[in-house]
């Protein structure tokens, strides 16, 4: 027998009909399992708008925090095209004069809008090999690309959840690490990657999805403390497009074998489960023929990286006006001013350079993060250099 479909519109009609028949609000609300304030809200909508008031209403917010209205952004671009030599300060003053009724955006916001549409002429400066971490590359040599991900969590025999973090070499399929962790917190991931780097060296790039701890949805360009650490070590970042796990298909295929051979049944605790993982690593790398490798073992093809693991040195900013260290809470402190950046860059050194009249650019290594001015207490993002691209 199919489930009986219950539509909110039909329920509201029944609710109002009973009230119109003279039943008390408290009795009807109790029968429908809603509070009386909700009941009065539904009934008042009906009295104000009729049947249209009972339809589902959009939950989309009227305003988005920190989002510039498109009318103002369009006006900024129009003024820039009419006056190509004007910078953000002059455009902002023009907005204040011509549209005194609106709240004027900060100069850094105006500059970020112009930069996002390619209307800012940048000064040419020397680059020390700008890292490219956005395109997904096909490589044929070991350690040119590692892949990392968490296999879906599962419960151990003692009912505790286990989150296996796995790392493989793209070209040889060599399983570098498979560690059962109690959560996906970055502190645990740091230790796993550090052990892998010490044992196998540093790869050229690491490919992951956009989940925690590899990325952070609320930080600049989705950066996380883990990915910032990789950049410090000279590792390029590759991220698959959201909703496209096939872009990390070799790694996902390994997960199928891992799940089948180590989690059915699972170990009773982390020690027993890690023993299963360690045994799987040895068999997968040195005993199991791989069809994609013409029957060879990953251990026959993989060699350690020629780049040994060494603690990262602090970045240098010779072409910037000054160097600042980001606070633990993700802020830039300039005198008495506190400018919000991102906790992903906590304790990191960044470069500050004035690019226009009282507008400063914030850079991390070879990446331009955003702009701030003398008024606002936050950094407005620049163009995103880490947008995932399809193969």
Structure notes:
This protein has eleven helices and 13 strands. The protein folds into four domains: about 10-55; about 70-115, Arc Repressor Mutant, subunit A, CATH 1.10.10; about 145-300, Ribonuclease H-like superfamily/Ribonuclease H (Nucleotidyltransferase, domain 5); about 320-380, no CATH class. Residues about 1-5, about 60-65 and about 125-135 have low confidence and may be disordered. By secondary structure, it is α+β, with helices and mostly antiparallel strands. The longest helix is centred in the C-terminal third of the chain and has 17 residues, at about 270-285. The radius of gyration is 28 Å and the shape is flat. It is about 30% helix and about 15% strand.
Name some characteristics of this structure.
single chain, about 400 residues, alpha+beta, Nucleotidyltransferase, domain 5, six-stranded mixed beta sheet, 11 helices, about 15% strand, flat, disordered N terminus
What's the short version?
The protein is an alpha+beta fold.
Secondary structure layout plus pairing:
Layout: H1 8-20, H2 25-32, H3 36-49, H4 70-82, H5 88-98, H6 107-116, E1 146-150, E2 154-155, E3 161-169, E4 175-181, H7 186-200, E5 205-208, H8 225-232, E6 236-239, H9 249-262, H10 270-286, H11 298-301, E7 322-325, E8 331-334, E9 337-340, E10 349-356, E11 359-364, E12 367-373, E13 380-381
Parallel strand pairs: 1-5, 5-6
Antiparallel strand pairs: 1-3, 2-3, 3-4, 7-10, 8-9, 10-11, 11-12, 12-13
């Amino acid at each position: 027998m199919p489930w009986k479909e219950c539509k909110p519109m039909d329920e509201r009609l029944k609710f109002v009909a009973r009230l119109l028949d003279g039943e008390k609000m408290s009795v009807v609300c109790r029968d429908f399992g809603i509070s009386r304030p909700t009941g009065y809200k539904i009934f008042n909508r009906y009295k104000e708008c009729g049947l249209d008031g009972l339809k589902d209403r959009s939950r989309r917010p009227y305003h988005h925090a920190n989002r510039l209205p498109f009318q103002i952004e369009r006006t900024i671009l129009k003024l820039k095209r009419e006056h190509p030599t004007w910078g953000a300060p002059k455009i902002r003053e023009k907005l204040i004069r011509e549209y005194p009724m609106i709240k004027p955006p900060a100069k850094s916001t105006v500059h970020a809008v112009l930069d996002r549409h390619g209307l800012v002429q940048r000064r040419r400066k020397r680059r020390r090999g700008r890292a490219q971490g956005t395109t997904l590359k096909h490589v044929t040599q070991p350690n040119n690309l590692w892949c990392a991900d968490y296999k879906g969590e599962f419960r151990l025999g003692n009912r505790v959840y286990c989150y296996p973090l796995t790392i493989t070499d793209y070209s040889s399929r060599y399983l570098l690490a498979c560690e059962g962790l109690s959560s996906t917190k970055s502190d645990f991931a740091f230790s796993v990657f550090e052990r892998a780097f010490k044992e196998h060296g540093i790869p050229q790039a690491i490919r992951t999805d956009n989940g925690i701890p590899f990325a952070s949805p609320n930080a600049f360009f989705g950066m996380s403390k883990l990915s910032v650490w990789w950049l410090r070590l000279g590792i390029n970042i590759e991220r698959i497009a959201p909703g496209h796990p096939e872009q990390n298909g070799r790694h996902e295929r390994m997960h199928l074998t891992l799940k089948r051979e180590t989690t059915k049944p699972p170990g009773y605790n982390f020690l027993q489960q890690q023993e299963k993982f360690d045994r799987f690593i040895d068999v997968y790398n040195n005993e199991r023929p791989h069809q994609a490798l013409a029957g060879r073992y990953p251990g026959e093809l993989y060699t350690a990286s020629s780049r040994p693991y060494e603690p990262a040195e602090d970045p240098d900013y010779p072409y910037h006006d000054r160097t600042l260290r980001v606070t633990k809470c993700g802020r830039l402190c300039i005198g008495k001013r506190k400018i919000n950046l991102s906790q992903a860059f906590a304790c990191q050194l960044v470069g500050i350079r004035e690019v226009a009249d009282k507008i400063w650019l914030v850079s991390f290594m070879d990446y331009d993060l955003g702009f701030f001015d003398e008024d606002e207490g936050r950094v407005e993002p620049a163009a995103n250099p880490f947008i995932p691209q399809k193969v």
